[in-house]
């Protein structure tokens, strides 16, 4: 007679906006059991307990580490990610961390090293990879359907900017819109192109329409990557831009046989369309409805439930952290 496998026991650390959203997705997946939620803000804990009434309310990471869990989900302010992830991994827990994994390549590397040493599954929420549009576009590029990609253009302009004070504190957030939104764009470009070798990196940071000083939190950023393939990737992102709509999000890849474009619909943060462009022709690859936000965490939950341990693919995240480091470092000079 076989006995049913026990579901991994999971705790959530930080159940603010995105923590609560991802808790709903993971809870609905059925891959894990959500046993604890920890947040110093009792209102956040109360809201999370509505979604996971069986979970034990807690205050801090130390409570979760003492709770006999298999893994934790970290969705705290960015400055805390690396240290909290390392503590959890060293205690033998699998970790799913919000982006950015660290505020620098050094921090991200330290987390990945801890995961490798502990042989524990480590996931990062680079959620836009899981939109149906970006998945289709990556397949098109990797299948050589648009030919040799020589240029890419990615934007993420958020007409509002974050409403929480910590995002505007360099120490707590690690940077401004580049750390917040640029992380997604650099990752998306490299992931879609199969993580090519990067030649040179340059960029510019602005704060309130002026070149940003070393202590400013940038609200407009551009990055230019020259890849060893010869391709050029141009990235622009911002908070509080006069964008004429809520958000302007796109990723376009130009090849010698065609192009592929991902873009948001009517300024939406959630609805996207992907298209294959050839000459004046445009073929829609996919569009809404597409409930993509929770896919990355659900996949982490599925892998954990199937016994997965350290996956070296996580090292891809270092390329993105390195690019951001280079832009911030050049700017601080
Ligand atoms: N993957 C994505 O697309 C995506 C989207 C939004 C946010 N994020 C990332 O998620 C993180 C959280 O963003 P948010 O918008 O949910 O912020 P938030 O401020 O709404 O939530 C953070 C929560 O962490 C709690 N907290 C603070 N210190 C803590 C500690 N020491 N231990 C436990 N909890 C603590 C706060 O009380 C709050 O409830 C950020 O790093 C952000 O970059 C990622």
TrEMBL record:
InterPro entries: Gfo/Idh/MocA-like_OxRdtase_N (IPR000683), Gfo/Idh/MocA_oxidrdct_glycsds (IPR050463), GFO_IDH_MocA-like_dom (IPR055170), NAD(P)-bd_dom_sf (IPR036291). Residues 135-260 form the GFO/IDH/MocA-like oxidoreductase domain. It holds the Pfam family GFO_IDH_MocA. Keywords: Oxidoreductase. Residues 9-125 form the Gfo/Idh/MocA-like oxidoreductase N-terminal domain. The keyword Oxidoreductase applies. SUPFAM superfamilies: Glyceraldehyde-3-phosphate dehydrogenase-like, C-terminal domain, NAD(P)-binding Rossmann-fold domains. PANTHER family: BCDNA.GH03377. This is Gfo/Idh/MocA family oxidoreductase. It comes from Aquamicrobium zhengzhouense. The lineage of its organism: Bacteria, Pseudomonadati, Pseudomonadota, Alphaproteobacteria, Hyphomicrobiales.
């Amino acid at each position: 007679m076989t006995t049913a496998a026990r579901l991994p026991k999971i705790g959530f650390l930080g159940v603010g906006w995105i923590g609560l959203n991802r808790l709903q997705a993971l809870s609905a997946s059925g891959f894990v059991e959500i046993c604890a939620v920890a947040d110093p803000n009792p209102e956040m804990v109360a809201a999370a307990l509505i979604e996971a009434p069986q979970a034990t309310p807690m205050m801090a990471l130390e409570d979760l580490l003492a709770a006999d869990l298999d893994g934790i989900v970290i969705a705290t302010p960015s400055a805390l990610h690396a240290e909290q992830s390392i503590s959890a991994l060293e205690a033998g827990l699998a970790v799913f961390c919000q982006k950015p994994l660290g505020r620098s390549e050094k921090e991200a590397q330290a987390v990945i090293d801890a995961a490798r040493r502990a042989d524990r599954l480590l996931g990062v929420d680079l959620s836009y990879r899981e939109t149906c549009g970006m998945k289709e576009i990556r397949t098109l590029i990797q299948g050589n359907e648009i030919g040799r990609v020589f240029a890419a253009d990615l934007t993420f302009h958020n007409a509002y900017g974050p409403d929480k004070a910590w995002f505007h504190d360099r120490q707590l957030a690690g940077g401004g819109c580049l750390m917040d939104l640029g992380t997604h764009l650099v990752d998306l470009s490299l992931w879609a192109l199969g993580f090519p070798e990067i030649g040179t990196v340059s960029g510019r940071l602005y704060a309130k329409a002026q070149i940003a000083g070393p202590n400013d939190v940038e609200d407009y950023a551009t990055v230019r990557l020259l890849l060893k393939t010869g391709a050029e990737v141009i990235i622009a992102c911002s908070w509080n831009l006069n964008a004429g709509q809520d958000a302007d999000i796109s990723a376009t890849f130009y090849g010698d046989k065609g192009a592929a474009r991902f873009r948001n619909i009517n300024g939406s943060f959630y609805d996207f369309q992907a298209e294959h462009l050839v000459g004046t022709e445009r073929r829609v690859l996919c569009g809404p409805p597409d409930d993509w936000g929770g896919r990355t965490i659900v996949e982490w939950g599925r892998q954990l439930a199937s016994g997965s341990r350290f996956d070296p693919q996580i090292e891809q995240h270092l390329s993105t952290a390195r690019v951001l480091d280079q832009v911030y470092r050049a700017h601080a000079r």
